[in-house]
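Please, structure for the following, as tokens.
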Amino acid sequence: MRVRLLTATGGAVALTFFLVGCESSFLGPDQESGNEATGAGGIADGSGEHTEPEHNTSNDDMLLVVDDGSEVHDDCAHREIVVTADDAVVVLDGSCEQVRATGRRSTVDVGSADRIVLVGVDNRVSFIEGDPEVVNRGRNTTVAQGGTAKS
């Protein structure tokens, strides 16, 4: 597991500037930032506007978990996973492309992931196998091998 930790010097302004400047690398080509503090992206609604969905959303490329307290068990199917919900329990069997946890107090278990990005608070992400790149910008967040997902 490769880990990069962000150490902030210069206060909240420098951290916010850094996160805003880097967040676009985590968004897809058809997304804009929906929340600069967390890097959460919106979804195109067909009119060219980007909005945060009201409920969990899934398609061939992405699974977006926004409903607080959600319990999701699904196949990752090489998708990008974004958990902006608070207090969610997400179990994704198989291989994920990228997992982002930007909410609070959520648990995400995956079979494997190419990349894991933590921006939220008190989140835990586990993976069964592989050597994911880990970017940990969160507070009191952990990434560990293990969990309940199937590889």
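The CA atoms of residues 34 and 98 lie 18 Å apart. The first strand starts at residue 2 and ends at 5.
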